[in-house]
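Hi everyone, sorry if this is the wrong subforum. Our group has a chain we'd like a structural model of before ordering constructs, and none of us has done structure prediction before. Sequence below.
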Amino acid sequence: MEIVEKGEMKFVGIRLQCDSVEDYQLKIPKTVGELKARTSEIVRPIDRERIFGLFKVEAQSSEDGYWVCLQVEEIESIANGFEGLSIRPSKYATLRHVGAAKDLHQTYENLHEEIAKAGYQRLPDEWTIEEYSPKHEQSADMINVSLYDPVV
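Answer:
Right subforum, don't worry. Here is the predicted structure as tokens:
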């Protein structure tokens, strides 16, 4: 585990809302494919190859779901079917997961244990960030993702 600080970040992408973790595991890869097919519609991206997943563990209904996004310099001229999201500066505990999507929860559990051992407190009402490696093909059987859990 490593602790990092990130400044304000802005994203544009597709919001996904599902009824269960299993549904998210099935639908996120499809949504990533949809985003990749439409990246040319996103204005001022920082890197068209680097995909992010964003969610809050404890979200109000207006923020409930999972966003599949590109990071952008500024949120402007949002195409139909996309949403913009701005995340304030924050401190994160980070850990990489390489393996099946179904095992991601175990990596999160490991990260949460490390956070507690290091004396940090998780912030479940702040944005969690998943940064997918652009150098690796992502599938339900194999994902390569850096997890950023907000802490104080």
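For your construct planning: The domain at 2-151 is CATH 3.20.80.10 (Multidrug-efflux Transporter 1 Regulator Bmrr; Chain A). The radius of gyration is 15 Å.
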